[in-house]
Design goal:
Helices cover 67% and strands 0% of the residues. With 161 residues, the protein is an all-alpha fold.
Length: 161
């Protein structure tokens, strides 16, 4: 491999461009032009943007907005506290679209909890519980479907230093 290409790859990795699909695909295309190092592309990068991650974020944000509206209309004791707790979810919805693994995991756990809580809730109309379960399950399914959009993580093998 040429030294200038190796330097460019080091700078590419140092800048964090590995996490951005467009920059990664550009680098793969450049490497293919240099000698076909990645003939079939890079796993998890299809060359076209995935829609499932953005859809999951929008569904999760819509679900949160509807829950906040329902709490505000109902006006029960402690509604302000729960509205603030729910509003904390909005930044996670925004960050997950940027392919951040932490917010991705947080939304997965949040939506799993939402399904469990809505299914077990008593004193709430069945229709509202059904809507919450449906929206949370949809967000969960879209989040799971979007996992290939994240780069694979390789842990070091044991015994190597």
């Amino acid at each position: 491999m040429r030294a200038d290409l190796a330097d460019e790859l080091e700078e590419f990795a140092r800048d964090g461009d590995l996490w951005h699909t467009d920059q990664l695909q550009t680098m793969v295309d450049r490497l293919n032009a240099q000698g076909g190092l990645f003939r079939r592309g890079v796993p998890g990068v299809s060359g076209r943007p995935g829609w499932t991650l953005a859809a999951a974020a929008w569904v999760a944000a819509l679900e949160t907005g509807l829950l906040i509206a329902a709490l505000a209309v109902r006006g029960s004791n402690g509604a302000g506290f729960y509205i603030i707790l729910l509003a904390v979810k909005f930044p996670f919805c925004w960050l997950v679209v940027q392919r951040r693994p932490g917010p991705f995991l947080a939304l997965l756990v949040w939506e799993l909890a939402a399904v469990a809580i809505a299914a077990a809730a008593s004193g709430t109309a069945v229709a509202l519980r059904f809507v919450e379960v449906a929206m949370a399950a949809t967000a969960l399914a879209l989040l799971v479907a979007s996992t290939p959009q994240f780069p694979a993580v390789r842990l070091p093998e044991s015994g190597q230093r």
